[in-house]
Amino acid sequence: MYSLAKQLISEKDVRRKISILEQLVNTGQMTTKDLAERLGVSQRTIFHDLQTLRYELPKDWLLEAQGNSGVSLTTNQPTALQEVWEFYMEQSLAMVVLKELLRQRQIAVVNFLMEQGVSYETLKRQVQKLNRELATFQLKIKLTTRNLSWVGEESALRIFYHRLLTPFTHQHFFFEDYQVHESNYRDFLASLQRQKKAAKTEEIFGICWFFINTIRIKAGCPIETLHYEEDALAQIYRKEIQGLYAKEGVLLKGDEAFFAYFCFLESWSYLIAPDGSALLRSSYGHLFQNARDYLASLTEGRALVENQELLEDLVLFQVKYYESKSLTDQFLGEYEEVLSVCQARFPQLFQSVATSLAAGQLSGITEVSNHAVSNLVLLIQTAKAQVNAQVRQAFLVFQGEPAWKQFLLQELQDLGGKRVSLQEVSPGELPEDLGSQHLILSNLPLDSETKATVIYLSMVPTERELAAFRTWLQNWYL
Q1: In degrees to the nearest 10, what's the CA dihedral of 424, 430, 434, 437?
Q2: Most buried residue, 112, 126, 194, 198, by most Cβ within 10 Å?
Q3: Is the pLDDT of residue 273 over 90?
């Protein structure tokens, strides 16, 4: 969730302490040896960091040593990790630079150095490290003896900030008085619902876009000239979006108005709400036919031609591409790691979709990015899984008190979810033709050789044993 923020924090000690706290929050308890191995440092370094953390942690946080069992972290605060991040962001010069450059066109270097108590050479080193990470976003921070400023397109800059700050939307370090702005956005969504214009949205995703656009416009940093076509859907939402930004004292028009609308459209979930579905069907009947024809042209899509949810998803994809191909590709490019997973997990479907799009089989949409191909692959694959879910077979070989065994069988089945069929068997009942796609959970040593994955369980399975089960699932499904 915070991976980009950790990449950008160049101070090793700050990044390490954040990682220690994340590990303890996620696992509950860890030994210093395990922490050292996980973070790739010595136990001595971990001991030193833990000692420092005890003095730095906010009130009501407690690091406790549990003898040989390790270290645990306890707190009464429900938003614990956010509070820690805010504390350590203030200690990272890189994060302070990014915060200041979010709110103004440029930073006066002399004043900044005095406020932060650092030298010009220290700032120069931090900017160089930041620029290595920012290259992925086609951005750069320019440092002179007078000023710090951004180099790059404003749209790319806002996309970068959105990726960085979505996990920190409810946090004062970057977004002061966020409760007021959040209230305005929720009023906007409620207004759409009353007018039968509601769409199921990723709310935090949309709120973060609203914050970033408002801040950048007020800082006098306009969006660059965009290439777009404002169609029926944009016109339906234009007035409400302009009203939302007007509450922040921002007058939306031209390219800025379209960009704000497109950000709102990007927050739409692909599980479209009834009102949004009705708007798509009333405005884009021809695109629904395009979607049917496209699915019929794909070997993998023919069984899905009348899948209404998938048709709506494909229509929304087409709307985005027709309105602004360049923005669609930019927004999708925000998640490079998703593309890698998609290409590795579904290579045949990826190639099939890429080839069909290159041939213009989806209503003439051509020259699409790999990120757009990935987007379509995920939509089609999701629909396929809903129609014909792939269920992995797992076996529980367990000797113990019968009531406990039945309870454990149900618990493990619930943990595996609907994609795993867990069957209780005796060792002699295990099929002989098991392969690598099968799993055996056992509290008995198995005599026979098997190609299946075997995870040995304690009478009461430990966290590590359950984690091994979850890892096996993840390898198949993610």
Answers
A1: 10
A2: 126
A3: no
